[in-house]
Amino acid sequence: MARNFINLDVNPCKMCMPMGAAIAFKGIEKSILMMHGSQGCSTYMRRHMATHYNEPVDIASSSLTEQGTVYGGENNLKKGLRNTIQLYQPKVIGVVTTCLAETIGEDIDRLINEFVAEEEIAKDITFIPVATPGYGGTEYEGYYLSLRKMVERLAEEGSNDKVNIIAGNLTPAEIRRIKEILESFSISYNLLPDISKTLDAPYSKDYQKLPDGGTTIEEIKSMGGAKATIELGALLDEKISAGQFLEDEFRIPLYRVALPIGLANVDKFINALSKVTGAKPDPKLTEARGRMLDAMVDSHKYNAQGRAAIFGQPELVYSIATLCLENGLVPALLATGAKTSKLEELLKKDFGLAVEDTVIIDDTDFDTIRDYVNKLDVNILIGHSDGKFITERDGIPLVRVGFPIHDRVGGQRKVTIGYDGSVNFLDEITNTLLDRKYSSYREDMYDKHFTG
Amino acid sequence: MIDNKNLLENLLSAYPGKSMKNRKEHMMIKDSGEEKQHIMANTRTVPGIMTNRGCAYAGCKGVVLGPLKDVVHITHGPIGCSYYTWGTRRHKGRAKDGEKNFISYSFSTDMQDPDIVFGGERKLKQAIKEAVEIFEPEAISISATCPVGLIGDDINAVAKEAQAEYGIPVLAFSCEGYKGVSQSAGHHIANNNFMENVVGTKDREPKTKYPINLLGEYNIGGDGFEISRILDKIGYDVVSIMTGDGTLEEIKEAHTADLNLVQCHRSINYIAEMMEEKYGIPWLKINFIGVQGTIETLRNMAKYFDDEELIQRTEEVIEEELGEIKDVIAQYKKMCEGNTACLFVGGSRAHHYQNLFKEIGIETVVAGYEFGHRDDYEGREIIPDIEMTADDRNIPELKVTKDEKRYKLRLSEERYEQLKKEMPLGEYKGLVTAMEDGQILIDDLNHYETEVLLDALKPAVFGSGIKDKYVAQKMGIFSKQLHSYDYSGPYAGFKGAVNFARDISAGINTPTWNYITAPWKNDPEIEAELGGAS
Ligand code: SF4
Ligand code: SF4
């Protein structure tokens, strides 16, 4: 069963759509997000992003009040846009909706068109409206949908030598790692989105309202003429795939690969790069691969004792599950709050029998996850901070990864992708298992000799 | 010397005309030479300026209801709102023997597309049923989020039906996020419901001679634990706490207390007022933040009860507690002395924390509230002059009358009047009283204004929330979250003051600030080699 209760979500394992949009738009150069609705949503999302990224997170709101719900939110939205433009001078404004705006039926496409026609100050600004009702999906869909809308709006027909990389919801440090890999292939690329600096900016005396970095509009435009797209996301629906749009609209070959965590997934990513560039990977990469393999062989005996519960956004769950599988660590439970049947399909397809004893649930909550964790004798949790709910009750250790990590520092700097990242991550998992083994060993000894 | 007047003018000049006019009214430079100074507050947020304010749901479910540990709090709405209030305010709750504790849970009806189209009442009913069957709570609260009111779900009817069916209180809060102008609306909605449906529904015999309620204390970071420790030590009988580490069961008996202590005036003054009307319980504005604040509060309380034994016991406890912390605080004071702070928090903390900062030698130069009203700035005497806006009218004003059976006069009229002269009995004089001439009060501060003010004033510490914390820290200014304490606390009472002094001192004096300039930046030779680039 996906959830203990049909009508009650107890301790959610998901957030709402606009949250995903907020992260995606942070990866666009000099952009700002306007949430059309009442201000609570934007305040909450800023709060959550700030605890994870430890960066200022500016998200504007049209601050609708009761009056707006009766007469429509047009005035508030336009006024809000004027103020935001004046104070921030952004190049791009993403305009997304919240539940309130969607429920009262706001047509943001029309409102934006009007605004652009009416306002002088709107002339040099690129607007990207995205409908993201909170009840329409989770942050997972909100993230990819926003990327697709950016591309739909901006990509232009053409022909260039670039490769498009559509990044999944990775950490800023991981985006930096992706860039290093791309640079090792000496290709020019469009990386969408690029949060490497915007959500992990270096300390600098001169505070910048809109931090440097991010994908430029020109880059998104040129995506329509690239020679290939590599989309990091194995499970996403075509309707929210930017890569799919580029293929349908501009016939750009699409390689869809999983988040490059785990040897096989990194291989696939590197292989795709190799294919589209016609170049062999840099020896440094093959060396790193060899080292990872070496490490896998070395720690196999410990990992074989692991039974993991992996939870969070579907792409991350999928990739970590494959990392576990290739290391003999049983992914006893795979859980996501989003709705997807792909997780199961794909794993069965790729790993067949090996996932026989894996329970896979979607559209779930932590109350349900906890029950399975206990039923399935899980001894390690892998996922974002909210899993601590289970750790606190049942004492099962949690390896933190994904979004949000709000009770530890460094979530934004964590790297689990690539050969190096994967192997470090694997070490962390292995060591957590070892920690547990030794501490319970000590406890057993203590119980045996000093008590009872 | 910075000219604050110029500073504000500069700051305002970046706004488009109308917004400038609006924002200007929300700022004030204190000048006690003027007879009465005013500041605008609790009006609609200017859209698009990155306000720090939240919504009514945040104030109702997040702030006031959330800490009640024996209640299953169901958020009726799409998942986000419920997720974002899950454990984020760090209100702690310890269950006593046999008590239920749902504090680490988040319950949501997780409305989906079809629920928005066809209505969510059925789902809500089922969700309540599921919650009752599995969790067996003492009570259930239902908080509505934005879409609920718009699609016409009647949560009151659902609550009534469920209450009859399951025989436990089921309270419905129509705290849709768009109501009012900030979380403040939600506080009011929560207060009304407690008053209407909870307080006075169960009687209780006092355990000591001094039964009290502690209102507007939410046990953030364990503040309430420290306050309760002190009150227990002196011998008070805490009937109920609204709502930190509290239970709905206790609130039912709140009418049996003889004094209401009001910590956060903004969020809870409604119920304090109504309980005075209805049951005759006077309320006292207190402040358990800061050593002097705590001492003064304890002395006022003792004086209120006018009991020699209590007065003596209070002094003993004060002396004992002070003895334990005096030297440590003095130590930290040496390390912090001479610095300044800017405070922008909530509806009371920008005031409460000024004492504590002062005790470690730090002066507050700018202060403001996120969702305060004019009375929180100017004092309660301004209340009759505050104009009702359309947004205010959307929150029902609850009229209470004397409960003939339970009303009890606690003080004679003369004594009340006498005490009023000696302590803030039924009175709050506002933030402005804490400020010096020339200092800035600012309402609903936003990111842009934060930057300008911090850049010009360069305080050693900015006390605020997580959303603007990193704006400050990116500018090299240590920022302390005064909403959630950065996973630290408690900061209240005597022991809390030590924690606070330690944390502030560590923040101001962290060695990290010494490494801001890279060595090659100071070395002219290297700089030349690099061609001046960095
Ligand atoms: S679920 Fe809807 S109302 Fe709630 S925070 Fe998300 S967008 Fe806002
Ligand atoms: S404003 Fe409305 S939708 Fe947003 S968080 Fe508040 S209640 Fe939820």
From TrEMBL, chain A:
Molecular function terms in GO for this entry? nitrogenase activity
The family database entries (Pfam families) matched by this protein are listed as:
Oxidored_nitro
State the PANTHER family in the record: LIGHT-INDEPENDENT PROTOCHLOROPHYLLIDE REDUCTASE SUBUNIT B
Q: Which organism is the protein's source? A: Orenia metallireducens
Q: Describe the family membership recorded for this protein in Swiss-Prot or TrEMBL.
A: Belongs to the NifD/NifK/NifE/NifN family.
- The protein's name in its UniProt record: Nitrogenase molybdenum-iron protein NifN
Q: Where is the Nitrogenase/oxidoreductase component domain positioned along the sequence? A: 16-433
Give a yes or no for keyword Membrane in this entry.
no
UniProtKB/TrEMBL annotation, chain B:
Reaction(s) the record says it catalyses: N2 + 8 reduced [2Fe-2S]-[ferredoxin] + 16 ATP + 16 H2O = H2 + 8 oxidized [2Fe-2S]-[ferredoxin] + 2 NH4(+) + 16 ADP + 16 phosphate + 6 H(+)
E.C. number(s) listed in UniProt: 1.18.6.1
The record's InterPro entries line, in alphabetical order, gives: Nase/OxRdtase_comp1, Nase_comp1_asu, Nase_comp1_CS, Nase_Mo-Fe_asu
Q: Which UniProt keywords apply?
A: ATP-binding, Iron, Iron-sulfur, Metal-binding, Molybdenum, Nitrogen fixation, Nucleotide-binding, Oxidoreductase
The Gene Ontology CC terms held by the record are: molybdenum-iron nitrogenase complex
Q: Which domain of life is it from?
A: Bacteria
Listed GO MF terms: ATP binding; iron-sulfur cluster binding; metal ion binding; nitrogenase activity
Q: Which residues form the Nitrogenase/oxidoreductase component domain?
A: 55-507
Q: Which cofactor does it need?
A: [8Fe-7S] cluster; [7Fe-Mo-9S-C-homocitryl] cluster
Entry function: This molybdenum-iron protein is part of the nitrogenase complex that catalyzes the key enzymatic reactions in nitrogen fixation.
What does the subunit comment say? Tetramer of two alpha and two beta chains. Forms complex with the iron protein (nitrogenase component 2).
Of which family is this protein a member?
Belongs to the NifD/NifK/NifE/NifN family.
Q: What is this protein called?
A: Nitrogenase protein alpha chain
Say which species the protein is native to.
Orenia metallireducens
**Organism lineage string:** Bacteria, Bacillati, Bacillota, Clostridia, Halanaerobiales
